[in-house]
């Protein structure tokens, strides 16, 4: 017995199979499209997360202390203020010194940073001898002229405010002091002192 034909000459069985096949193709196409959309969304989300993490790292680096600025008020053995030294942390890790002092004996003077936050006149020495230890820092001598003033700027490369600075001496506010020494004729006694970060 032959199956009836539709008006296009096809058979109903073939038509049903064709329709079923087309429906299957449509379903597979839809599922694939949804999967690609989810993957794209996931990749975009992962990229955004990666960018956010990178921004957080960059912001953390920007917030590091290497660019710290500290003003050190210097006092003489009588406790009188004789000026200040501004310490500017540089991005390279070094520290720039801006020295502006008055009433300093004429001649060359050594300057150092000691491991102490005690600057008590007249000797500017802590009670514990270990606290008077000088930090390893290549600070050049400063010179006072006939006007008894010291006005100069220089950078000390092996000092840093950055706790992650490798191969450099860490400069900690409220834990160190800046000391100025007398000339050789003055036996190199401490003639001025200021606590770094102190009030």
Automatic annotation (TrEMBL):
Region: Disordered, residue numbers: 37-65
Q: Where is the composition biased (Acidic residues)?
A: 50-64
Classification via InterPro entries: SOD-like_Cu/Zn_dom_sf
GO molecular function terms attached to this record:
metal ion binding
For biological process, the GO terms are:
superoxide metabolic process
Q: Which stretch is the leader sequence? A: none
Domain of life assignment: Bacteria
Q: Which family does it belong to?
A: Belongs to the Cu-Zn superoxide dismutase family.
According to UniProt, the name of this protein is: Superoxide dismutase copper/zinc binding domain-containing protein
């Amino acid at each position: 017995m032959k199956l009836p034909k539709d008006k296009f000459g096809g058979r109903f069985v073939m038509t049903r199979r064709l329709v079923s096949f087309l429906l299957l193709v449509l379903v597979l196409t839809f599922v694939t499209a949804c999967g690609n959309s989810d993957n794209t969304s996931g990749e975009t989300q992962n990229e955004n997360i990666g960018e956010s993490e990178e921004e957080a790292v960059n912001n953390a680096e920007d917030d590091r202390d290497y660019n710290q600025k500290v003003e050190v008020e210097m006092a003489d053995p009588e406790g009188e203020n004789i000026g200040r030294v501004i310490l500017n942390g540089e991005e390279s890790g070094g520290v720039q010194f801006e020295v502006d002092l008055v009433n300093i004996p004429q001649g060359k003077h050594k300057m150092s940073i000691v491991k102490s936050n005690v600057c008590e006149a007249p000797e500017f020495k802590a009670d514990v001898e270990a606290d008077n230890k000088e930090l390893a820092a290549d600070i050049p001598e400063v010179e006072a002229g006939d006007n008894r003033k010291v006005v100069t700027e220089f950078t000390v490369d092996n000092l840093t405010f950055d706790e992650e600075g490798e191969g450099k001496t860490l400069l900690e506010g409220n834990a160190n002091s800046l000391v100025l020494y007398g000339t050789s004729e003055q036996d190199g006694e401490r003639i001025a002192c200021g606590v770094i970060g102190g009030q």
